[in-house]
Every structure is written in C-alpha cells, then in structure tokens.
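User: Some background: our group keeps a shared notebook of sequences we're curious about, and every so often someone picks one and asks for a predicted structure to add to the entry. Today it's my turn. The entry only has the sequence so far, pasted here. Could you supply the structure so I can complete it?
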Amino acid sequence: MTAPTLSARRPSWAGRLRWTFADGSTLIGRELSRLRQEPGELVVALIFPAIMVVLFGYVFGSAIEVPGGGGYREYLMPGLFAMVTYTSVMSVTMRVATDASRGVMDRFRSMPMARSAVPFGQTGAEILNGVLGLLIMAAAGLLVGWRAHRGFVPTVEAFLLLALMRYALSWAGCYLGLMVKNEQTADQLVPLVFPVTMLSNSFVPTGGMPAVLRAAADWNPVSALTAASRELFGNPGAPTGDVAWAVAHPVTASLLWSGVLLAVFVPLSIRTYQYRGR
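Assistant: Of course. Here's the predicted structure to add to the notebook entry:
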C-alpha cells in the first residue's frame, strides 16, 4: 500500500474557505443567541442611540450655529452615526476579552473548527448588531426632524459606508481583545474612544478650534466619515474654504481608512488568535 500524499490530506483552498465561513456562521449564531439570553445588554445597546439623538439634538441644538445655515439636528445626525460606528471597537474588545478570560477561546481551540472562524464570528455578529443600531438611530432621527435629501441610492450608499467602517473597526476591536485578554482591562479602555469621537466635526464645526486641534480634527477618520455621511445624506455642514484633503474628499478618505483597517487588523487578529493557542 502506498502512503497517502500530503495534498490528499489537506483540504483545498476553497474547502478551507467554506469551512471557515460555515464555522464563522455558527459562531455568529452563538453571539446572537447570547444576546437573547442577556436581553439587558441588547436593550441598552438599542436604546443608547435613541437617547443620544434626543440628548445631543436638544441640548446642543439651541447653542450651536450650523455653518451655511440649516437645522442643527440634521447637521448632528451624521455625526452621531459616525460616533456610534466607532464605539464598535470597544464593544468587540469587551466581548473577545471576556471570552478569552473565561476560557471560551481555549475551548474553541480544542474543537475541530477553523481557527480563523472565531474572529470572523465575532466581527460578523458585530456588524449585524451595528446595522440594527443604525436603523433605530435613523428612526429616532426621523422623529426629531432629520431627513436624507439626496434620494434612495445616496442614502443606501451612506449606510453601506457606515457599515463597512463598523466592520473594519470591529476587526481592530477583535485584535485589542485578544491582546488584553482581560475584561477588566478592556473595560478601562472604553473611555478612550470618546476623546477620539469628540475631537472631530461630529457635533461642532472645526473652524473655531485652535489651529493644532483643527488639524487633528480634520484628519481624524471620524471627521471623514461624518463629512461623507453629510454629503451622501444631503445634510448641512459641507466643508468650505481651506480644509484638509480627508474632509474635502470624505467618501474616498473613509473608503481608504476602512481598507487600511481591514488590511492591518484582519491578518493581525487571525495570527494573534492562532498564536495564543500554541
């Protein structure tokens, strides 16, 4: 009898890909099932966007003048969409770190499943949660007077751009969660996301900021995503005058940021997960 060849023992590239997606889909189902078993976490995640719309829309609305005119709540909504999108980093970090600290990751590694399926499952579940959160925030925005003015196709493009960025950021969160491996440490990192989202054009125009802060805000990827959303939704607040390239071409800049995040953190997350199991 001849020994089986090495190529016969290894699945093809297409077979490994199908295996990864099948196991990843199972883990997405696990995450969604966990949310059903812990409805409090789901309720908070869904109510938070609506509260942000009402709080910022009415508290800031009477005090801030929109450049070029227009209602503040229409100016605000793209910024809130961008801010909530960037919070996905910490939500995924918390989930991955919790699973790592409780030994769930070790149990996954002991099972006959694709190693890369675990990061794909975590990030896939986050994009489903994020889309639902965006829809709830959009409904709250409609109730307080926000509208998308450029028609169906640009509106869909705006939401797809937000979803793409959220997915890219979820991979960054997956990598951070694998690195910290401790839910207490991950919890302490949560407040760090707010300075990043606040130092942008999300809630206030950057024109009145000091030169250094304005430069940082204009090159902040949150500002690019916010400006891209305003452009696609047709909301007020379009950049004028001498502005950074990322704000002058926000859709292109947001696509580039998403591509860079995916190119960096997808392989890092998969390799880190595999390395931790050795």
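Suggested note for the entry: The CA atoms of residues 83 and 195 lie 11 Å apart. The chain has 14 helices and no strands.
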